[in-house]
Hints:
Number of helices: 7
Helix content: 25-40%
CATH superfamily of the largest domain: Aldehyde Dehydrogenase, Chain A, domain 2
Number of domains: 2
Structural class: alpha/beta
CATH topology of the largest domain: Aldehyde Dehydrogenase, Chain A, domain 2
Distance between the termini: 30 Å
Shape: globular
Largest sheet: 5 strands, mixed
Order of helices and strands: EHEEHEHHHEEHEH
CATH class of the largest domain: Alpha Beta
Radius of gyration: 18 Å
Amino acid sequence: MDVRALSFTGSSRTGRLIQAAAAKSNMKQVFLELGGKSPAVIFEDADLEKAVKETAHSIQWNSGQVCMANSRIYVQDTVADKYIELFKQNFEKEVKMGDPLDARENGVNHGPQADEAQHKTVLQYLESGKQSGGELLTGGGAPSGREGYYIEPTIFKNTPEDAKIMKEEIFGPVVNINIFKTEDEVLAKANATEFV
Protein backbone atom coordinates (compact mmCIF):
# COMPACT_ATOMS: atom_id res chain seq x y z
CA MET A 1 0.00 0.00 0.00
CA ASP A 2 2.98 2.35 0.46
CA VAL A 3 3.85 2.12 -3.24
CA ARG A 4 2.25 5.07 -5.04
CA ALA A 5 3.28 4.32 -8.64
CA LEU A 6 4.45 1.47 -10.83
CA SER A 7 6.26 1.50 -14.15
CA PHE A 8 6.42 -1.64 -16.27
CA THR A 9 7.83 -2.45 -19.70
CA GLY A 10 6.90 -5.85 -21.10
CA SER A 11 4.05 -7.95 -22.41
CA SER A 12 0.45 -6.79 -22.70
CA ARG A 13 -0.75 -9.79 -20.69
CA THR A 14 1.47 -8.94 -17.73
CA GLY A 15 0.60 -5.25 -18.03
CA ARG A 16 -3.11 -6.04 -17.72
CA LEU A 17 -2.46 -8.08 -14.57
CA ILE A 18 -0.41 -5.26 -13.04
CA GLN A 19 -3.06 -2.66 -13.86
CA ALA A 20 -5.83 -4.80 -12.34
CA ALA A 21 -3.80 -5.43 -9.17
CA ALA A 22 -3.00 -1.72 -8.85
CA ALA A 23 -6.68 -0.82 -9.17
CA LYS A 24 -7.58 -3.29 -6.42
CA SER A 25 -4.99 -1.90 -4.01
CA ASN A 26 -4.66 1.84 -3.50
CA MET A 27 -5.44 2.98 -7.08
CA LYS A 28 -1.75 3.69 -7.59
CA GLN A 29 -0.59 5.27 -10.82
CA VAL A 30 0.57 2.77 -13.41
CA PHE A 31 2.80 3.59 -16.38
CA LEU A 32 2.91 0.84 -18.99
CA GLU A 33 4.95 0.34 -22.17
CA LEU A 34 3.51 -2.85 -23.59
CA GLY A 35 4.73 -4.50 -26.73
CA GLY A 36 3.98 -3.44 -30.23
CA LYS A 37 3.54 -4.39 -33.85
CA SER A 38 4.79 -1.15 -35.34
CA PRO A 39 4.11 -0.59 -39.02
CA ALA A 40 6.23 1.39 -41.44
CA VAL A 41 4.56 2.70 -44.58
CA ILE A 42 6.66 3.27 -47.71
CA PHE A 43 4.98 5.35 -50.43
CA GLU A 44 6.21 5.51 -54.01
CA ASP A 45 7.78 8.96 -53.53
CA ALA A 46 10.05 7.79 -50.69
CA ASP A 47 13.83 7.76 -50.86
CA LEU A 48 13.96 3.95 -51.14
CA GLU A 49 17.60 3.51 -50.17
CA LYS A 50 17.11 5.56 -47.01
CA ALA A 51 13.80 3.82 -46.25
CA VAL A 52 15.46 0.41 -46.59
CA LYS A 53 18.38 1.42 -44.39
CA GLU A 54 16.13 2.73 -41.60
CA THR A 55 13.49 -0.01 -41.65
CA ALA A 56 16.06 -2.81 -41.89
CA HIS A 57 17.99 -1.32 -38.97
CA SER A 58 14.78 -1.02 -36.96
CA ILE A 59 13.97 -4.74 -37.11
CA GLN A 60 17.55 -6.02 -37.01
CA TRP A 61 18.90 -3.72 -34.26
CA ASN A 62 19.25 -5.54 -30.94
CA SER A 63 18.26 -8.70 -32.84
CA GLY A 64 14.70 -7.44 -33.14
CA GLN A 65 14.26 -7.26 -29.37
CA VAL A 66 12.81 -3.74 -29.41
CA CYS A 67 9.15 -2.96 -28.67
CA MET A 68 8.92 -0.38 -31.43
CA ALA A 69 10.74 -2.34 -34.14
CA ASN A 70 9.14 -2.03 -37.59
CA SER A 71 7.96 -5.62 -37.77
CA ARG A 72 5.32 -4.84 -40.40
CA ILE A 73 6.30 -2.90 -43.50
CA TYR A 74 3.77 -1.83 -46.10
CA VAL A 75 5.19 -0.81 -49.49
CA GLN A 76 3.27 0.82 -52.33
CA ASP A 77 2.85 -1.53 -55.29
CA THR A 78 4.67 0.72 -57.78
CA VAL A 79 7.98 0.50 -55.86
CA ALA A 80 7.51 -2.77 -54.00
CA ASP A 81 9.80 -4.97 -56.10
CA LYS A 82 12.70 -2.53 -55.89
CA TYR A 83 12.23 -1.90 -52.15
CA ILE A 84 12.00 -5.61 -51.33
CA GLU A 85 15.10 -6.45 -53.36
CA LEU A 86 17.09 -3.69 -51.63
CA PHE A 87 15.81 -4.81 -48.22
CA LYS A 88 16.77 -8.42 -48.89
CA GLN A 89 20.23 -7.36 -50.06
CA ASN A 90 20.64 -5.34 -46.87
CA PHE A 91 19.82 -8.33 -44.67
CA GLU A 92 22.05 -10.67 -46.65
CA LYS A 93 25.07 -8.34 -46.97
CA GLU A 94 25.01 -5.89 -44.07
CA VAL A 95 24.21 -8.22 -41.16
CA LYS A 96 27.23 -9.68 -39.39
CA MET A 97 26.19 -12.19 -36.76
CA GLY A 98 28.27 -12.87 -33.67
CA ASP A 99 29.11 -11.89 -30.13
CA PRO A 100 27.91 -8.30 -29.55
CA LEU A 101 31.05 -7.67 -27.51
CA ASP A 102 32.97 -7.94 -30.80
CA ALA A 103 31.00 -5.09 -32.37
CA ARG A 104 33.81 -2.56 -32.56
CA GLU A 105 36.65 -4.89 -33.46
CA ASN A 106 34.88 -7.23 -35.88
CA GLY A 107 31.87 -5.24 -37.09
CA VAL A 108 29.33 -7.55 -35.44
CA ASN A 109 25.88 -5.98 -35.57
CA HIS A 110 23.59 -8.93 -34.86
CA GLY A 111 23.68 -10.83 -31.59
CA PRO A 112 21.62 -13.64 -30.06
CA GLN A 113 18.17 -13.59 -28.53
CA ALA A 114 18.11 -12.75 -24.83
CA ASP A 115 17.72 -16.33 -23.62
CA GLU A 116 16.67 -19.85 -24.53
CA ALA A 117 12.98 -19.15 -23.88
CA GLN A 118 12.92 -16.19 -26.27
CA HIS A 119 14.90 -18.17 -28.86
CA LYS A 120 12.30 -20.97 -28.76
CA THR A 121 9.46 -18.45 -28.96
CA VAL A 122 10.90 -16.81 -32.09
CA LEU A 123 11.47 -20.21 -33.71
CA GLN A 124 7.81 -21.07 -33.04
CA TYR A 125 6.73 -17.81 -34.69
CA LEU A 126 8.93 -18.62 -37.68
CA GLU A 127 7.23 -21.99 -38.09
CA SER A 128 3.84 -20.29 -37.80
CA GLY A 129 4.92 -17.80 -40.47
CA LYS A 130 5.95 -20.59 -42.83
CA GLN A 131 2.50 -22.15 -42.42
CA SER A 132 0.62 -18.85 -42.80
CA GLY A 133 0.74 -18.62 -46.57
CA GLY A 134 3.28 -15.81 -46.74
CA GLU A 135 6.41 -16.15 -48.86
CA LEU A 136 9.68 -16.66 -46.95
CA LEU A 137 12.35 -14.58 -48.73
CA THR A 138 15.36 -15.07 -46.49
CA GLY A 139 16.24 -16.41 -43.05
CA GLY A 140 13.60 -18.47 -41.35
CA GLY A 141 15.45 -20.22 -38.56
CA ALA A 142 18.52 -20.61 -36.41
CA PRO A 143 21.80 -20.49 -38.34
CA SER A 144 23.43 -23.87 -38.75
CA GLY A 145 26.84 -24.35 -37.21
CA ARG A 146 26.53 -21.53 -34.68
CA GLU A 147 26.14 -22.11 -30.96
CA GLY A 148 23.92 -19.83 -28.95
CA TYR A 149 20.46 -18.35 -29.28
CA TYR A 150 20.87 -16.79 -32.72
CA ILE A 151 18.07 -16.24 -35.24
CA GLU A 152 18.68 -15.42 -38.88
CA PRO A 153 17.22 -12.05 -39.88
CA THR A 154 14.03 -13.12 -41.62
CA ILE A 155 11.78 -11.57 -44.25
CA PHE A 156 8.27 -12.76 -45.06
CA LYS A 157 6.44 -11.23 -48.03
CA ASN A 158 2.69 -10.98 -48.62
CA THR A 159 1.73 -12.54 -45.31
CA PRO A 160 -2.05 -12.70 -44.74
CA GLU A 161 -3.17 -9.87 -42.47
CA ASP A 162 -4.81 -12.30 -40.05
CA ALA A 163 -1.68 -14.45 -39.62
CA LYS A 164 -0.27 -14.80 -36.13
CA ILE A 165 3.07 -13.25 -37.19
CA MET A 166 1.20 -10.17 -38.46
CA LYS A 167 -0.81 -9.72 -35.26
CA GLU A 168 1.51 -10.66 -32.38
CA GLU A 169 4.78 -9.17 -31.23
CA ILE A 170 7.58 -11.61 -32.07
CA PHE A 171 10.43 -9.71 -30.38
CA GLY A 172 12.96 -11.08 -32.83
CA PRO A 173 14.54 -10.17 -36.20
CA VAL A 174 11.46 -11.07 -38.23
CA VAL A 175 9.78 -8.64 -40.63
CA ASN A 176 6.66 -8.92 -42.76
CA ILE A 177 6.63 -6.87 -45.97
CA ASN A 178 3.21 -6.49 -47.59
CA ILE A 179 2.16 -4.50 -50.63
CA PHE A 180 -0.60 -1.88 -50.88
CA LYS A 181 -2.14 0.27 -53.61
CA THR A 182 -3.93 3.17 -51.89
CA GLU A 183 -3.46 5.31 -48.81
CA ASP A 184 -6.87 4.34 -47.40
CA GLU A 185 -6.02 0.66 -47.79
CA VAL A 186 -2.68 0.92 -46.02
CA LEU A 187 -4.03 3.05 -43.17
CA ALA A 188 -6.68 0.44 -42.47
CA LYS A 189 -4.08 -2.34 -42.45
CA ALA A 190 -1.55 -0.40 -40.37
CA ASN A 191 -4.17 0.39 -37.73
CA ALA A 192 -5.66 -3.13 -37.55
CA THR A 193 -3.79 -4.06 -34.38
CA GLU A 194 -4.54 -4.34 -30.69
CA PHE A 195 -1.42 -2.31 -29.90
CA VAL A 196 -1.78 1.44 -29.58
